[in-house]
Amino acid sequence: MTSIDAAAAVDEQAPPAIQPWWSRLMRDPIALFATAVLLAIIICAIAAPLISPHDPFATSRAVMKPPIWNAGGSWDHILGTDGQGRDMLSRLFYGTRLTLIIGVVSVGLGGTFGSFIGLLAAFYPKLEPWVMRLVDVMLSFPAILLGLALVAVLGSGVTPVVIALAIASIPDTARIARSIAVSVMKQEFIEAGRAVGLSDIALFTRYLLRNCISSIMIFMSLRFGQIILIGAALSFLGLGARPPTAELGMMASQGRDFLLFAPHIAVIPSVMIFIIVLATNVLGDALRDVLDPRLRS
Amino acid sequence: MTTATLPTSAAEARGKQSVPFLEVQDLEVEFHVSGTVQRAVQGVSFTLDRGRTLGVVGESGCGKSVTSLSIMRLVPQPPGRYAGGRILLEGKDLLQVPEAEMRALRGGRIGMIFQEPMTSLNPVYTCGAQIRESLSVHSGLSRAAARDRAVELLDLVGLPSPKQRADDYPHQLSGGQRQRVMIALALANDPDLLIADEPTTALDVTIQAQILDLMGDLRERTGAAVMLVTHDLGVVAQTCDDVVVMYAGRVVERAPTKSLFADPQHPYTIGLMAAVPRIDAAIGRLATIPGAVPPPWKRITGCRFASRCPLATEQCRTEDPPLRELSPGHGVACWRAPIETVMS
């Protein structure tokens, strides 16, 4: 066995360890910036009750006051006030908070369920036609229409919007999860896992899910931006949160009435939506570049 | 194989009294693909005893991998279907046992080594974790015991510094190292039957020799039966006691290794041997077998090899030759056998 040992020692040299993904992510300045922006927004949203200068629901006679950078602005209302004299900055914090919650909950619920059925379809090919036809049906149904129908049944509010958005994110995640999982299922280690005598549950969770999860998470982070947009659109149409709750889409919708005299009321929440969506998309792209082994040069 | 006679003959003596350890009888496996039926394995039979190594040879698509997957009952259904035959492990038909029992056999009494060491290990777990997983499924060892046993196994298969390697992820290892881990995984629960599906095909020649030596060592140490699927006749000559030659889903020749290499009887086997480059032969073009394996959906009357066979007669084209025994242990499915003159 001596010759074998000698040769084995030669092929012992393992390739150098790859740097962890977060350190590679942080070397990309744009991704770093997007992360910082998102973190700042999330902190503001969480700390909204602490950092808001005013009660976001308290009306006053100082209506449509311009933001600080316009003539007539004051430090008391940095972003001015809306049509009912409510402090825009405070409403922005609270609105961001609600918008983020709606986005996270609906993408979380819909994405989890969607990826589960997508993985299931790949794991049990017999289920595949049924699951994927169901997904096609769901895909052909616009989220806005679904939202309208749910509001008609449940009444307007945050819950029907979350349900509608969750259902809207099922088909996309299911398809993506299935296509990722199909390529994983073709790999020999799945068969090797079977040959070791693993149960289906162990094979599904430890072999399939664990190998798909990072790609699915990236897709969900990209999806998050779209869901926030659809959610804002539903609120804009008056289907979401009921006044006086602050929600970015609803704030933009309410500002529409004052667009000519006080454009900031509509513009500020819209810019916030824009920043959130852009930051999540940039971050999602960067994450994909870093985590996807096929794009790793 | 004179060095291994002691355990072998003991096993043989036991085997002769009772049923053979593994017996495949008239195995038929079909694949139903878009309306066509592809008969991947047609009436394959062979036996394998403890302590013996059986080589299964043939070119790509001849059904040798499907045969080995069938023993594990891992042919995907659908599109695959076991259309007939039996696979008897100590007399028990593996095609009939309930799934839970089959699962206990896989990785327990039957270990399998796959062809592609680069993709056969789960990339998200360490090598040690994968071995421990198999141990906990089958042996119910405690965590600490499984940890020790995993390191012991990695040591057994000749991985240097096994303790560190147990905490490495597959992508940190080279191809040869990964194949050693695969072998350790297959051996984790002391299987009685080791199925190796082209275990050395993806490795370079020096590592191939090491892996084959390792498998030979382990067989002698554990007394397991080994089924070695390969298309490399050199590997067969070196390691196997008996050989089954497959062609287009059939066994065309079945013989002890010595007898097969000394006196090949089927024109296909003869052609295969002529196609092997020899170090002592004059330099020239290598012999080839004209034509290609018939596609599996094609219905063929007569001998499957007839279209490529230089000795084919009218009978070969119309009647399917059965496997018949020419000398003890040496069976061939050819109307023209015994062939006296060796083809050039």
From TrEMBL, chain A:
Domain of life: Bacteria
Gene3D superfamilies in the cross-refs: MetI-like
Keyword Ligase assigned: no
One cellular component term from this protein's GO annotations in UniProt: plasma membrane
Keywords: Cell membrane, Membrane, Peptide transport, Protein transport, Transmembrane, Transmembrane helix, Transport
Domain ABC transmembrane type-1: 96-284
Transmembrane spans: 30-51, 98-124, 144-168, 216-241, 261-284
Compartments (UniProt record): Cell membrane
Membrane topology: Multi-pass membrane protein
GO biological process: peptide transport; protein transport; transmembrane transport
Pfam families with a match to the protein in the record: BPD_transp_1, OppC_N
PANTHER family noted in UniProt: D,D-DIPEPTIDE TRANSPORT SYSTEM PERMEASE PROTEIN DDPC-RELATED, OLIGOPEPTIDE TRANSPORT SYSTEM PERMEASE PROTEIN APPC
Family from the record: Belongs to the binding-protein-dependent transport system permease family.
Name under which the protein is recorded: Glutathione ABC transporter permease GsiD
Organism: Pelagivirga sediminicola
TrEMBL record, chain B:
Topology within the bilayer: Peripheral membrane protein
Record organism: Pelagivirga sediminicola
GO molecular function list: ATP binding; ATP hydrolysis activity
Superkingdom per UniProt: Bacteria
Compartments, as annotated in UniProt: Cell inner membrane
CC terms in the record's Gene Ontology section: plasma membrane
Protein family: Belongs to the ABC transporter superfamily.
Stored InterPro entries: AAA+_ATPase (IPR003593), ABC_Ni/Peptide_Import (IPR050388), ABC_transporter-like_ATP-bd (IPR003439), ABC_transporter-like_CS (IPR017871), Oligopep_ABC_C (IPR013563), P-loop_NTPase (IPR027417)
Domain ABC transporter: 22-273
Record's keyword terms, sorted: ATP-binding, Cell membrane, Membrane, Nucleotide-binding, Transport
An individual GO BP term: peptide transport
Protein name as annotated: Dipeptide ABC transporter ATP-binding protein DppD
